[in-house]
Design brief:
Blueprint (H helix, E strand, L loop, with lengths): L1 H12 L4 H13 L3 H18 L3 H22 L4 H27 L5 H13 L6 H53 L1
Helix pairs in contact: 2-3, 3-4, 4-5, 4-6, 5-6, 5-7
Family: Belongs to the DP1 family.
Protein name: Receptor expression-enhancing protein
Keywords: Membrane, Transmembrane, Transmembrane helix
Amino acid sequence: MFAQLHNRYEALLNKNNFVTDLLATVEEKTGIKKKYIASGVLSLISLYLLFGYGASLLCNLIGFVYPAYLSIKAIESKKKEDDTQWLTYWVVYGFFSIAEAFSDIFLSWFPFYYAGKCLFLVWCMAPVTWNGSAILYYRVVRPVFLRHQATLDSVVNNLSDKAKNMADTVTKEAVNQALKNDKNQ
């Protein structure tokens, strides 16, 4: 099993992308092999997530920056599959963020919470067939959404109508006040 993981790690480091190009540049300048540099950086990140101050920020950056970058690339590509993959990630990320907003005050006190959260987010964005966001979307989010879609559509339409009416009222009032101030001057 470890040999298989090691081979996958080596293959990942030999792919051509921004991170591996950066690692190659650092390897060239320092003489340290990129697999050792990558392992050191991953170890530091892991230790920081376990014991560091501000682990929440680091975890949120990991869960946001890489997926945001790949989402922009997906928007710019012609393929639909990558759009679907990243939209699925953001839906699950949104549900997770809402749930976490209510539970974070308790969960953050658990040892290694941010390391676990970071592992969860990496699982959700991982480019594998057992991707966490796809599993959670198709097994949890989608069935609940389909069961309550009519109610949700009604609520969204009602809120949209109210927001449009409020915007119209505020705009008319602002125009009336501007005209009234113009007359007085």
